[in-house]
């Protein structure tokens, strides 16, 4: 079911008279700034809004499509963007095959005096975006402040997600070199690799999105230098997250390869010990087999022969055991 909420500012001051049917009137007023959020929309609602605000039909289709990549497209009257908010599951999933992350898509139409956001899921915390608008205190700077607040919340979520993946990889590293390696380590590693791939898909294109919106904002607003430093800081955060995901990709690959190497090393150690014990056991086997021949030989049917063969077995076994222990084969 479609859910609509929004806020209106006049002269930089918040108002309590938001009405979805009066969006065109709000946007026509010179001193008014609008934010409208549409959650789980149907095509008819968006189509009617698109006709009213002259939004691009293809952008409207992209806003409600099942799968769209992170992007920003500038049109004549507005800019359309799609980003993904990432949330870390709390508590973490008990099943090691389940994802650690929840990913939700947010699309937006940036107008000269308003921002229209479209969400397909209610799980994304849109109230955090509203609080960020108030914390920024920059509504007097125009719609660029609203867009910055939304993107700032999204990028903060990316930081939280990449930190959670970093902690999970470090936990795997601790288990990797423990004497009692936990079961399912390979499954956990594979799940983290999949989470990291999904996160990279939504994080890496954010550089283009921030760049495009920043340039388009300057074109529409004819310059708001007060926000330039905010967007520069936002772009720096996007770069840091992107670089962090690159380093995590190398780390998880190294962990996976190290796990295989350690398994090979443990297998070699086991085979070395088994080979050493097999060599020790082969000595009495060979001697008793020799004396088990069906022929006459010195010492047969005598106590001395038994003592001699037993002494040879004991001496050779002790010598081999000491030699193998000295070389750390046992």
Q: What is the helix fraction of residues, given as a range?
A: 55-70%
Main CATH class of the largest domain: Alpha Beta
The main pleated sheet reads as: 7 strands, mixed
CATH architecture of the largest domain: 2-Layer Sandwich
How many separate domains?
Answer: 2
Side-by-side strand order of the widest sheet: 2-1-3-7-6-5-4
As for the CATH topology of the largest domain, it is Beta Polymerase, domain 2
Gyration radius (Cα, Å) is: 35 Å
How is the topology of this model organized?
Blueprint: E1 3-10, E2 13-15, H1 23-28, E3 32-39, H2 43-53, H3 57-64, E4 71-74, E5 79-88, E6 101-111, E7 114-119, H4 126-136, H5 143-176, H6 185-203, H7 206-221, H8 225-291, H9 303-326
Parallel strand pairs: 3-7
Antiparallel strand pairs: 1-2, 1-3, 4-5, 5-6, 6-7
Helix pairs in contact: 2-3, 4-5, 5-6, 5-7, 5-8, 6-8, 7-8, 8-9
